[in-house]
Amino acid sequence: MFKDTKVFTSFSAPDIGAAKEFYGETLGLDVVETQEGLELHIAGSTPVFVYPSDSYTAPKHTILNFPVDDIDAAVEELNRRGVTMEQYDLPEIKTDEKGIFRDDSEMGPRAIAWFKDPADHVLSVLQLQ
């Protein structure tokens, strides 16, 4: 039934202008503004749609993951662009001074760092190998 359907994902934001600036200027994604909201064009994937919401509540989970070859370089570039990494000191997740969680186990990404957009959505950069 759905195997030939072109799927897309979406999420809401309380301020479309702030979302457009963050995703377009800060992260450097191609952003197209439509009557209904924003389309984020990310290499190798279908567009992500961001729509306005007057009754917005940020989810607690990560909504977008950006794989990178060099997490240290990606975090440095994000910091240079004004993005602050989240810091975690939990039993299962402890980030370093850069905000990077490094994992030497065989499962999951080798390293991951989380940050938030202006609407408090959690995003990540992750290095798989």
Strand order of the largest sheet: 1-4-3-2
Percentage of helical residues? 10-25%
Estimated radius of gyration: 16 Å
How much of the residues is beta strand, in percent? Answer: 25-35%
The secondary structure category is: alpha/beta
Give the averaged pLDDT, no decimals.
92
Strands, total number: 8
Order of helices and strands: EHEEEEHEEE
Task: Give unreliable regions as ranges.
Answer: none
Distance between the termini: 35 Å
* Overall 3D form: globular
Instruction: Give the biggest sheet.
Output: 4 strands, mixed
> So how many helices?
2
Question: Secondary-structure map with pairings?
Answer:
Blueprint: E1 9-13, H1 16-26, E2 30-33, E3 38-41, E4 48-52, E5 62-67, H2 71-80, E6 100-102, E7 111-116, E8 122-127
Parallel strand pairs: 1-4, 5-8
Antiparallel strand pairs: 2-3, 3-4, 6-7, 7-8
Quick tags:
single chain; 129 residues; four-stranded mixed sheet; 2 helices
Structure description:
This protein has 129 residues and is an alpha/beta fold. The chain has helices spanning 16-26, 71-80; strands spanning 9-13, 30-33, 38-41, 48-52, 62-67, 100-102, 111-116, 122-127. It is built from 2 helices and 8 strands, in the order βαββββαβββ. The strands form 2 sheets. The protein has a 4-stranded mixed beta sheet, covered by helices on one side. It is globular. The relative contact order is 0.20. The mean pLDDT is 92.
Tell me briefly what this model is:
Helix content is 16%, strand content 30%. It is α/β, with parallel strands linked by helices and 129 residues long.
